[in-house]
Amino acid sequence: MSGPQSIDFPAMIRKLRISLNETQEQFAERFNTHANTVSRWESGKYQAPYTVIDFVLRHQGVLVTCPVCQGTGKIVNN
Q: 15-73 pLDDT, tens per residue?
C-alpha cells in the first residue's frame, strides 16, 4: 500500500494557463491580481488561494467543497 500522493499545484496552474492559451497577465485578470502573483503561484513561492485551486481542479473534473467556506469563498459560521 502506498501513502497519499502530493499534488503539484504550481505545475497544474501553469499547465492550465497554457492550455487556456493565456499569458500570466491574462490569467491574473481572471482573479483580479497581478502577473507577478501568477508567476509566484506557478513557481511555488506563493500558495494560490482557494478560488484558484478550485478553478484548476474544476478544469480537471474534480469538485471540491471547502469545509470552512462550504464553497462560498467566505467563512461560514454554523
A: 999 999 999 999 999 999 999 999 999 999 999 998 898 899 888 887 666 665 555 55
Asked if 40 contacts 46 with a C-beta cutoff of 8 angstroms, the reply is yes
Q: How far is CA 25 from CA 1, 17, 30, 51, 52, in A?
A: 42, 10, 9, 17, 15
Give the global pTM: 0.74
24/43 Cα distance (integer angstroms): 12
In angstroms, the CA 60 to CA 66 distance is 17
Helices (H) and strands (E) in the chain, counts: 4, 0
Interatomic CA distance for residues 68 and 29, integer angstroms: 26
